[in-house]
Amino acid sequence: MIKLKSLTNSFFRALLIMSGAFLLLPSCSKTLSSSSYVVFGTECRMTLPISSHTKYYNILSDMEKKFSYRIETSEIALVNKNAGEKPIEVSDDVFYVVREALRFSKETDGAFNPLLLPIIKLWGWDTGNYRVPSDEELRNALELTRVSDVVLDEQNKTIFLTKKGMGLDLGGIMKGYACDVLYKEMMSDGITEGIINLGGNIFVFGDREYRVAIQEPYAERGNVINSVFVRDKSVVTSGGYERGFTSDGKYYHHIIDPKTGESAKEIYKSVTVVCPSSTVADVYSTAIFVKGEELRGKFLSLYPDSDIITYP
Ligand code: AMP
Ligand code: MG
What was the pLDDT predicted at 2? Predict the structure, then answer.
């Protein structure tokens, strides 16, 4: 069970270090060195007991080059470009993440869906040129988001999106997966303590607890509603407040309900998942944000070493 504490003390506030959607405070400081770098379109920060972090940023950059649908030469972009035409051979890790993402889609009863790119494009979440699509546009795009229309060939490591217009967007799982990859790499390098923060997707490890503070939704950055004390775990938050636009007085955000193609109803303002696997935390923070209570019980029974904090 994790410990929850409200942060009311202004002394603690002053000590908090900004890190994306989250704020972070090591409970005591050994000689850890921090660095930051922009990957996956977000600020990535590492705090480690070694001075050069280059190796790990290179791993992140290499991943981005393979996984980002925005990079024309990436494997995912190639799979998307060949939708409705032919299967594309991909590297082992791309195959693995896509297979996992599709499996999570089933496990979350469709609340998590890595095939929402046609919907994302309609709303302009990919470019920042936002607009509200028509019902008909959404209906047509939803036809292109079915997990059963993806063919994975384990033997040949190929991915085939069988309908033209289909597209993979791994934005709801990638940062979590990247955190897990980095953690494994660091462990095998003999690094036994550190903080990985990929745009608010946090993983802390070592022989002491860290306090990870949770951002208050729709409040100024740095306003803390809660904090969790964790060790060897990931903390990931999803919330509609992170990205959105207003049209005709209505607020739209970037987390899509795969059933409707629209911004998910804000059952909660934010969902924080604490879990030993950052991939799982990333997927389920998004999925529980979409589906609410229904998924909460299932998640806790599947991942007993985990916790969920919702706001309000
Ligand atoms: P997160 O910030 O982890 O909650 O993920 C949100 C990002 O994942 C969005 O910016 C989209 O790229 C993508 N996404 C949005 N809705 C979903 C969903 N229901 N399932 C999977 N990915 C999604
Ligand atoms: Mg997520």
Answer: 38
Alpha-carbon gap, residue 255 to 253, rounded angstroms: 6
286 lines ligand 1 (CB under 6 A): yes
Q: Tell me if 273 CB under 6 Å of ligand 1.
A: no
Ligand 1 pocket member 117 (CB < 6 A) = no
Give the ligand with the smallest distance to the CA of 200.
1
244-286 residue pLDDT tens = 999 999 999 999 999 999 999 999 999 999 999 999 999 999 9
Residue found under tokens 């029974």? 301
For range 203-214, the mean pLDDT: 92
Least confident of 69-78, 154-163, 220-229: 220-229
What whole-number distance in Å separates Cα of residue 167 and Cα of residue 77? 8
Q: Which long-range contacts (CB under 8 A, 24 or more apart) does 117-121 make?
A: 117/69, 117/80, 117/166, 117/167, 117/168, 117/169, 118/144, 118/145, 118/165, 118/166, 118/167, 119/145, 119/256, 119/261, 120/169, 120/256, 121/167
